[in-house]
Amino acid sequence: MSDKAKTLMKQNIVLDGLYHGMLIDPPPECGIGRDVVDMILDGGVNCVVDSIVADGHPIDFDELLVQVYSYNLLQDLIPEKFLLVEKFEDIERAKQEGKLACVFSTQGTDCFEGDLRKFSIAYKLGFRVVQITYNNECSIGCGVYVKNDTGLTRFGEQAIAEMNRLGMVIDVSHVGHTTAMQAIELSSSPVIYSHAGVKKISNHIRNADDAHIKAIAKTGGVFGVCPHGIMNTMDLNVRPTVENYIDSFLHIADITGSFDYIGIGTDRWSRTTLTNNMKRISFDRITKGFFGTFDGDSKHVQGFNYYDEWENLVDRMLARGISEEDTAKILGGNFMRVFKQVWK
Predict the structure, then answer these.
(1) 251: domain CATH number?
(2) Residue 1 has what pLDDT?
(3) Which stretches does DSSP call E strand in the chain?
(4) What is the DSSP string of 77-95?
(5) Phi-psi region at 321: left, alpha or beta (left = phi > 0; alpha = psi -120 to 50)
(6) E strands present in 55-122
(7) Cα radius of gyration (the chain)
(8) Is 240 helix (H, G, I), strand (E, B) or coil?
(9) Residue 51 pairs with which residues in a beta bridge?
(10) Residue 140 pLDDT more than 70?
(11) Structural domain boundaries enclosing 107
């Protein structure tokens, strides 16, 4: 990798807008005595937004509390390299101290059990990003797999207002397109897609069209592009590359007039381990055919498919003519701008 890429990553905050599974045992190549935090840090990432609860299956507030407890245990166990984020400055401090900053998020809102009061409790527990639905219906609105997306519910409208008041960043990844647009238009704060794809690059159901991308930019938000292979190709028989992934950056910049609204959300790297295979089978049972033809070792685009390939992504971005300043924004600066603006 080029020295320019290494220097750029070292000098700037590198932020993964959507990670999950921090507590899952790492793959064998991690090495004895090491853990996933080591792999993330070695790859050059300083901060992850970690969806510690997700609505793939029914989940409640008690499970949210269990996960909060578990992540606090992790911080107690490895405080020299892991920091739970409560305020914006914690991310900057973690970078300075060589630690991984971890921001709590959700994928879905079943955990709040239709109770507006639990949003404020969750904020006090450290939740700073909330994805308002997963793939199905919930008390807030419709997920992207719902055939008849009826938009935000009355409770959903109240929840948007409450998250704005608290200082929670609203995430519309996985959200039905009608529900997402209504949330974007209703929010008084910047809205994000933490991990999604671009419809013009791949016609995947989870990807957003130009109207949604422009609406996100209008709020001052960020579109976190996900490197899932299925979300970066029109041909599911051909594995896309990092060049196809970067095409999404260029398209977003073209339609918004700037690189200021682009980020990265990996949705966690994958390898064919027993645990990962079990997760894939479980997920496929509720979202049939989601992974397409790509196995656990090729879930993401070729060239940006694992913890140690961030520098390769930066190299290719620079080679494609994206400036160092704009590359730094995409790597984390844009998400940081939103966090600083929204969090209270």
Answers:
(1) 3.20.20.140
(2) 66
(3) 15-19, 47-54, 82-84, 100-107, 127-131, 169-171, 191-196, 222-225, 262-264
(4) H-TTTEEE-SSHHHHHHHH
(5) left
(6) 82-84, 100-107
(7) 18
(8) coil
(9) 105
(10) yes
(11) 3-342
**Amino acid identity, position 105:** S
Query: Which amino acid type is present at position 177?
Result: H
At 81, the amino acid letter reads K
Of 210, 160, 222, the residue nearest 185 (C-alpha): 160
State mean pLDDT over 136-141.
Answer: 97
Segment 330-342 mean pLDDT: 98
User: Span 122-134, mean pLDDT?
Assistant: 98
CB count in 10 Å sphere of residue 235: 9
- One-character DSSP codes across 111-131: GGTT-THHHHHHHHTTEEEEE
**pTM reported for the whole predicted model:** 0.96
Q: Give the β-pairing of 127-131 and 191-196.
A: unpaired
Rounded CA-CA distance 336/319 in Å is: 25
**How far, in Å, are 198, 259, 294 from residue 210 at the CA level?**
8, 15, 26
Looking at the 3D structure of the chain, how many domains does it have?
Answer: 1
Asked if 20 and 51 touch (Cβ cutoff 8 Å), the reply is yes
Residue 18 backbone zone (phi > 0: left; psi -120 to 50: alpha; other: beta): beta
Judge whether 48 and 14 are in contact, CB under 8 Å.
no
**Residue 300, SS3 per DSSP:** strand
